[in-house]
Amino acid sequence: MIEPNRQGEVWVFAEQEDATLNDVSLELCAKARELADTLGVKVGAALPGWNVRELSYRLIAHGVDRVYCVQDARLEQYRTLPYARALCALIARHRPQILLFGATALGRDLAPRVASEMRAGLTADCTDLQIGDYTDPRTKIRHEKLLLQVRPAFGGNIIATIINYDRWPQMATVREGVMALRDGDPRRGGEIIEEAVPLSEAELAVRVIERHREARKVNLKAARIIVAGGGGVGSRENFALIHELASAIGGAVGASRAAVDAGFIGKEHQIGQTGTTVRPALYIACGISGQVQHRAGMEESAKIIAINRDREAPIFGVAHYGIVGDLRQVIPMMIRAIRERAR
Prior knowledge:
The chain has helices at 23-39, 55-61, 80-94, 105-118, 240-249, 257-261, 292-295, 327-342, and strands spanning 10-13, 16-17, 20-21, 43-49, 66-71, 98-102, 122-126, 128-135, 142-153, 158-162, 170-174, 191-195, 225-229, 252-255, 282-286, 303-308, 321-324. The chain is an alpha/beta fold.
């Protein structure tokens, strides 16, 4: 167990594949910078891999002060045990007080291994991170400047704030798109620290024989306009209206979990707590009730238009414009108006 280190840095695990950084790592750099400034400490990034040193400059541009670079040919392809060993060794040497991971497939595999090895707590799928104080109601002991890890709980029915005051580093995973991706500043200065970590044969027992990668078919995070359908669309056939509106307006197609579970559209289109988090310039929610699980993934859109027959639907609470009506009548009218204006 690592003892609490009040002067420890705020770290980001710099996830990369084929020497390309995952966007979520850069999103977390901005949040780590904010947390570190509140604590008055530096931001660090753990960067294991092979031929990845050049990535350090991009991390520094996005707010990192020190990049701990572990270059080893055996780390070229991600494998759980050697990556976990590298990260645990860095934690033991430098004792960060906070460590953030992206809640990607890789991050969700690696973070629990590291937390278990370090005997630290881990909060998954956070939607916000803050620094605050906590007073134990039993002992009345006040703990200052802890990481407040905010995430939906109990199926999204409540928002829970989770703290860890006695097992450090304080660790959390954050879903892609939850934190805004800021522009980097190439003029920023930082330090690149070359690290070496011994790896045993046992940790290298698993070998990657062959890799198969499927290209991403839907990129909701990059879409400036999204038309999303929910369970209120009613059927897979009716969902064609969502596709038609998206095509007319030049947008991407999204969906709520209810629509995905009903088989109206594939899971790669899902937006919300268990899907993708988006921030488009325009979000049109069609037949979506607007439960907290869905709102968590889209409520920071610049403009939100909601179409729903239920005037009491929660989606109207976050919408900038609301249309109370049957989407089967409203959407065709919108499509006609858009096409007539384009002539």
